[in-house]
Amino acid sequence: MNPCRDEQPHMLKLPFIHDDQLTRCMRLRAQSLQQKNARPQDGEKLLHPNEHVYRVDFIRQHNLCFLRWDVQLERSGKVMVTGTSQHWTPDLTHLMNRQLLEPVGIFWKKPGAKEVECNEADAQEFGERLVELAKIRKVMYFLLAFTDGLEPAQLKGSIVFKA
User: What Gene Ontology cellular component terms go with this record (predicted)?
Assistant: First the structure.
């Protein structure tokens, strides 16, 4: 049975979880290189001050169909969600630029607006790619970049699937 054609869909809402520990580790790596006046490895992605690491735990991995992004912003601003193809290890294997997935999900809220907007085509394609990645992963990591004064505490986000 195709889960996308199920008449009575069962929703699976998977929240973005801010990974404070991994964000701190990646910031320490950048800080360490700066203090030593060292260069990052060729192609290494260093975390910028406005970037934070989030994770999504796939409590179910098969028969998923992407439905939508559920992104709520408490104030105006923009958040860019970039998926990673990396399987992180506890010793923090360095994240390389080539491990960042395309397309990027960009969500924004204009001053005075009630609704969050996005580029629908990119968001849809990104969501569909996550279905494929969920088949081989229990956890997926994302880099979220906040701009225009937006901060992590002002975001509530999840990915909604039909299961």
Answer: axon; cytosol; neuronal cell body; nucleus
Q: In this structure, are residues 120 and 68 in contact, taking their beta carbons and an 8 Å threshold?
A: no
| Residues 163 and 64 sit within 8 Å (Cβ to Cβ) | yes
Q: Which residue range(s) make up the domain with 117?
A: 3-162
What's the rounded Cα separation, in Å, for the pair 36 and 50? Answer: 22
Q: What is the pLDDT of residues 23-47, one digit of tens each?
A: 998 899 889 999 999 999 899 999 9
> How many separate domains does the chain show?
1
Contact 155, 70 (CB under 8 A): no
Q: Is the peptide bond before 90 cis (omega within 30 degrees of 0)?
A: no
What is the Cα–Cα distance from 5 to 19, expressed in whole angstroms?
Answer: 34
- For the chain, what percent of residues have pLDDT higher than 90? 69
The pTM for the full model equals: 0.88
Residue 49, number of CB atoms within 10 A of its CB: 9
